[in-house]
## 1
Amino acid sequence: MTEEQMLAGTIRNNAAAQEAFYNRFSPRMLGVCYRFAKSREDAEDMLQEGFIKIFTQLHQYRNEGALEGWIRRIIVHTCINVLKKNKKFADSVDLIHAHGMHTKDDMVPGIIQAKQVVECIRLLPLGYKTVLNLYAIEGYSHKEIGTMLDIEESTSRSQYTRAKAMLEDILVKKDIMDRSQYKHTYGKSSSAR
Amino acid sequence: MEDNIHKKNFEQFLRDTTDDFLMVPSRKVWYGIYNNMHPDRKWPSMAVCLLILTSVLYIGVSNNNSLSDAARKSAAENLSDLAKIYISEKKSGSSDNTSISTSGGSPQFYSPNSRTVQIPLSAPGNSTAFAGLLNTENSDAPYNADSRLNQIPLSNRPEDFFNQPNRVSAFKEGELSAVTPFNDYFRDASEMAGTKQNKKLSDAQIHASEIKSSEIAGNGENKTSLTDIKDVSFAADKKKGDITLAEKTAYLSALDNERSWREDHAFRNKPKMREFRNRASVSYYFTPSIGFRSLTQSRQNQITAAPSASRQAFPLVAGPMQDNKGFNLEVGASLLYSLSENVRLKSGLQANYTNYTSRVTFIGHPTQTELAVNNTANRSRSSVFSATPGSERLNKSNLQVSVPVGADFKIAGNHKIKWYIGATLQPTYILNGSGYVMSADENYYISEKSLLRKWNMNTAVEAFVSFKPSPAVTVTVGPQFRYQFLSSFKKEYNYSEKLYNTGIKVGIITGL
């Protein structure tokens, strides 16, 4: 089934096309949800809700940009809405006072590569994690993040700075990342800060 | 500027790393999406479930796999030593001895059904011997405070008996005879041994059995699919592009099939008692209701008035002018056994109090009248109740014992609230009844208990909602209609009376 056929069938509410569509994009989207969620069960709930929205709104997709990018935006918005609806922001450490938290060495599970990084991101406080996911990985601007999370743009910037510093510490402590090494890999080498 | 470069490098690192991160969701996510997008497709499935109900009943009863030989051997090896002693004694017949001898010399006895030991504490050594054995603080054990017999409550927990060396040594050293004290202890121990056997199963089997037991237990039901796939990430050692999504899906499918088979095998090969307990539950209920009766004249026995009696013009069939509804009550307990997620059998014992009233006039002195039986021989009887509607209310009550046998069918619901419909057939024995019948001339009410039918058959249909206020208890509430098939009276009587009532049934379901 080609992508066009799959898309057309999904818009027509064809179950087989929907399942093919779901099987194709769900693994990556669940990874996106997992970075926002507190647990795997929460991530699957977000995924389910997100895909229901995708199937009901797929007729609005206008072939402007990649389909996966469009799906990803809906999934991210769904994750944020679920977090806000469940009052996760209120119950967890709030954005302003999260800077006092410290992560312990044994909080980072011993798994390798990408999942290590994702698990380290999930260790962050909810507010830090959300801002970091939205800005650094999903590519939203601080202004957009402020609108989505009902916070000030300056708050988003400051929280991202703190989140990034905390995550760097975790990744370096766990030997997942070497500051000097990734500077060499991803850009011009520079003197250590 | 360096900070900006640093920031962009870090963000790029995060994006590149997390882009490889994939997680395969469990199938229940897709089922949830599918049901939401195609809600109309549920109804044909429900119709098919109803149509194949009888085959499900047959398959559920006949499809009980026994333990495999390996599992039996493993279970036997895990029995505690003392349980083995009991089993060997049981086979040799030595455990049938019901006496327990104490160091004091005088033999005492126990009653295995009541779980108490009648021991005079004044006997030397008894207090020492039994203080460690008997747990007097166990609130679960039945306690008979008959100080004359000095009965002592006993612990029902095998760990209280086996897990303390002093108690075991006291048992072995002959302060008591080497006789099994109570069957219940060793039955519990065998069950404990059965749980030890479960620990030898793989984690998947244990997890599956726990999931399945909670899924289909009568109480309740945390729905968890047996084919849940744990998260697997594929951003492992392979380089980017080496593993395609199809390969990943095929791998996970194979893993899923193997896990499903293992979990299914574990479920079907659980110890029978454990599987029975997981599927069974007990329901306690009561049903306050309003009772009515229908009265018709038997066509075979046409009433003929006694020549000397004047016949008053009251209708044969007692209607609203004469009969009033009465308060009825049903109390019972039943055992529920889940054949599948949607069907469960039930049977139990219940007591019914049926009642309706007739407005009569109290005469104040016995009046001679006749009772027509089979229209052949009229029996002479006396009566103090005139059938003339008056200020007195004549209670026509029955006390019954029934054995309801039937089934419940789940028609809708989730893990919190479920809707059921149910029906039972109730062979009924009438313990006692007022036995008021009409006289031959229909002018009086006569109490003639010999005409009461001792055995009857009732049926009840109900629809109820069940919900779980706590994990261990399920509450059921719903209307019930109960109808009596056969007449309350024997065929000799000229009239056929059938009782029916309608009320609200309230019940509590707990596990075994």
Note: Chain B is about 30% helix and 35% strand.
## 2
Amino acid sequence: MKVLRADPDPDTVRALGELAVLEVFAGSPEADRVSDEALTLGQALDVGASLLSGLLVTRGLYLNRTGRRVQAIAYLRESERLAAQAGDTFTLARALGNLSYVLATTDPAAAAEAARTAVRHLRRIGAREFLAFAIGNLAGSLRELGDWDTAEAELTQAVDSDGLADIEYFACERGWLAALRGDAETAETLLAGLRDLRSSEDPQDKVMIGIVEAFTAAASRKMRCIMPERC
Amino acid sequence: MLAHTDTQGISSDFTSWAWSLAARAAFELGDTAATGELLALLDAHQPGYLAPMLRAERDLSRARLAASDYDPQAAAAFAAAISSLRELSTPYHLAHGLLDQAAHLAARGDTEAATAAIGEARGIAQRLGCQPLADRLETIQLARPRTATS
């Protein structure tokens, strides 16, 4: 990075952008500085709508993780606009998928709509990993709305029709829905089938498993086990 | 469950659901220390940083505490919490809040209001297909209606 920063060009911005993604998702103390640097430099070098759109997504995600939701939404909406302007379907879908994630706690209906649009784009272009992410966000928004049947249907379609049977995250979402309905047995079966997610170091994966385990404990009326330190 | 709020954010979807479940568990277990810690976790943030669901759940948690302390403001606290849940939270959380309120109303002998709250919660439980909510409905003891005696 030192070499690239010395005489910055669009490649520098791309490298910073990729570094920013890693820092933001790791919750690193460098996330603020790097995501801001990438976007600031990208604007200064006028790197173009497509690349700027991606940088806005990353910065928006950082802002959301620090509780600055309104700013995050603004960044993601601008990212969506620029990606559409550039005809960059993948980045557009990425912006929409992340917008749905950020909107989930404040406007789940809008979140579901953004996620559905992202899913439509991603199915068309065959971006498997991001499709899984967008479907997960759609299911989450539907869970917020109380439309649990449709959430279940979307997850089933993802497994049966989108070729995403290996995405263990979906098993977690399904386990969560089962636990919410009081079906501890199904939730426990789904949890028992997790392999990759259990060995993942990603904090989001750990949190997801923790949530499903907690709601499964609640479904079995094991309230004391919801707080393991008191279990 | 709440250990990763620093990477997920205090207002993430996960944190919101986790906090509300932990607060309910703490209350049901009579663990006032844990309830205090959970409330302190939210009170450490300015209101704009908290997800709407968290603000509503915090109101509900405080209403439950007020009721358990026999605070005369508990009924008003529950009413405010239910308003928050309606506006800011999910149908699932609203139904649980209605049942918390119904239990308080029933204990005060306000059978009519308790019955209304239970009825609304029952509708939500049926739409969601949520057995835990349905099970809770059965646990709320309503006062027998008074009958005239000769």
Note: Chain B has eight helices and no strands.
